């Protein structure tokens, strides 16, 4: 297999990267900063899972919002160290208190922003604040799926432009 979806349609979402059973997809950035998957055809077993999971070539199903709320965290320190009134931090803390796992975009490390998995409140400073850049999901979908299969509560917050949506995954 050569391409999963056309480069012009690819959002660099990492879904194909996470599903590949042979780990033979490499996500590479071009000179314009666009991240696109490249397949090592020597290791590919043509299972087709990457194509099946690509949101750009498969029909998506969406859920209607159940409720909408406005909020801010009453703790001034949290508000000062966060964005959007500390809403995400509030949900992160609550999830961890309930023995859950949270995923969010890390502050810049080795020249790029990456999603990370956190199980300890002391690490939350790493994911505080919005990052208006393309972050590397890396293997976080794979890890989150494992967590859900183990019965853990998972909170995954991802903010994308220009659609500006938060994605919350709970169990
Ligand atoms: S066809 Fe299967 S093995 Fe090949 S890149 Fe896609 S997911 Fe990986
Ligand atoms: S799954 Fe995501 S990263 Fe992979 S080809 Fe499709 S849009 Fe691009």
Question: What would you note in describing this structure?
Answer:
The protein has 2 domains: 1-61, Alpha-Beta Plaits, CATH 3.30.70.3270; 76-166, no CATH class. The longest helix is centred in the middle third of the chain and has 11 residues, at 87-97. It has 171 residues and is an alpha+beta fold. Mean pLDDT is 88; it is low at 161-171. It has a 3-stranded mixed sheet with strand order 4-3-5, with helices on both faces. A two-stranded antiparallel sheet has the order 1-2. The protein has a two-stranded antiparallel sheet with strand order 6-7. Helix content is 22%, strand content 15%. A hairpin with a 4-residue loop joins strand 6 (159-160) and strand 7 (165-166). The protein has 5 helices and 7 strands. It has helices at residues 15-19, 49-53, 76-81, 87-97, 140-149; strands spanning 25-29, 35-39, 101-105, 115-118, 154-156, 159-160, 165-166. Bound molecules: iron/sulfur cluster (2 copies). One iron/sulfur cluster (SF4) is lined by residues 4-5, 10-16, 37, 54-56.
């Amino acid at each position: 297999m050569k391409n999963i979806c056309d480069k012009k349609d690819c959002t660099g979402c990492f879904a194909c990267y996470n599903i590949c059973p042979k780990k033979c997809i490499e996500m590479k950035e071009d000179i314009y900063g666009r991240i696109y998957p490249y397949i090592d055809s020597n290791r590919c077993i043509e299972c087709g899972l990457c194509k099946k999971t690509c949101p750009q070539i498969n029909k998506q199903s969406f859920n209607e919002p159940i409720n909408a709320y406005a909020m801010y965290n009453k703790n001034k320190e949290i508000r000062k160290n966060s964005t959007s009134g500390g809403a995400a931090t509030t949900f992160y803390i609550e999830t961890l208190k309930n023995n859950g796992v949270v995923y969010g975009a890390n502050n810049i490390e080795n020249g790029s922003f990456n999603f990370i998995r956190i199980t300890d409140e002391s690490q939350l400073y790493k994911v505080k604040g919005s990052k208006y850049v393309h972050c590397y999901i890396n293997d976080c979908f794979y890890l989150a799926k494992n967590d859900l299969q183990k019965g853990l509560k998972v909170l995954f917050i991802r903010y994308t432009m220009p659609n500006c949506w938060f994605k919350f995954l709970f169990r």
